[in-house]
Amino acid sequence: MAHSTSLNLHQLHSVAPPHATTATTFPLTFFDILWLRLPPVERLFFYEFPTTSKTTSFYDIIVPNLKHSLSLTLQHFIPLVGNITWPLESSNPIINYVPGDAVSFTVAESNSDNFNHLCSNLCDVVDRQHLIPRLNISHEQASVLSLQVTLFPNSGFCIGITTHHAAVDGKSSTMFLKTWAYFCSKIQEQLTQIPSSLPENQTPFLDRSVINDPSGITEAFVDSWLNYDGPNNRSLKVWDTISAVKTEQVKGLFELTPSHIQKLKKHALSKVKTKVSTFSVTCAYLLSCLAKVEKPKDERVAFIFSVDCRTRLDSPILATYFGNCVFPQLVVVETNKLVENDGFIIALEGIIDALNKLEDGVLNEGEKWMSKIQSAIGNRLFSTAGSPRFEVYGIDFGWGRPKKVDVTSIDKTGAFSLSESKNNDGGVEVGLALNKVEMEAFLALFHQQLESF
């Protein structure tokens, strides 16, 4: 069913921290530089109006509260207000903040009555594009954060957030969202005194000097970017090959319930004879299903997943470290084995092997990562986004939990997203975009395969 995607832009704000701060430069570590020209991360949070709140309160209460709380939040998250640059006099890219910098905050209103359709488990990719805020990215400079709030009259609203991956990883951007929701909910409670400090688990740690690099990973990553279409290419433009929206696609959300996960684990234990995690069986199952549906022509299929390194470094850092602190792991399997009946076990064994190698050090041979990924580019490349540990369905700005959370950036990259189940029952919600024919095949196979275990 086709749906109109027309939109009225009501207001375009620039939101800054409430108090002027001094100019600050934040260096990019090798964890950040890895993502320098990869696509931004986009997420949409859909909220239904409370029964007592309709369109009028959106402009009179919701938008002012979101703006005010955003300003209060940004004073704790200054890197999000700055811009990524790569000055000629600097060997590495940096985030540069100067007083007067601000975050783009767009307020829009949809002319469509498709709120419930957009919140459903299946919808056309093109129907959500107008809800996604854009970063300002040129060869010389890139903004870090952009926000858009869109009203669906008499139904609800959508908060869109786009972040530059070279500035923050998913854990950090989610911490920002939770802090913004914390301040907004306090304003919504009409407290006379809004807290100026944050709970310890939401206080960002901004000192990037805690990231050590004894093996020269930073230099290796910098050289790779400089020599890409180089020499001395300091462009910050996103790779064109993976930044285009595939408009003829359908976005689907699927749930692996706790009973599904236990079934997968039981089957896995009968084959691999080692303890398996929810993450590993979920990814292995999705890889086997996707390979059977897509039937890649490449001899090998590559799978990339990221590991949070905060507790895995030789000198562990705080869980609230703000920036990137994830490092990719690569799994390569033969396509003809993956599409067979035991493709789930083949994928699982590859993931287990990659996880076991972490015992040698999470950054072992990290300086070779760029060349590894370049060698895998010729294969069908799958990857993940998000994590059930982010608990995105608990982000409440004061008007209730989100009805749906959609990682729209995977529509471009071909990744699949993972989050906790919106039912808060221990299940895993999976998001992916496929063309219509593939989506129909995946729907059938996803449920059929589960029944066969």
TrEMBL record:
GO MF, one annotated term: acyltransferase activity, transferring groups other than amino-acyl groups
InterPro entries, alphabetized: CAT-like_dom_sf, Plant_metabolite_acyltrans
Keyword entries, A-Z: Acyltransferase, Transferase
Protein name as annotated: Uncharacterized protein
Organism: Lupinus angustifolius
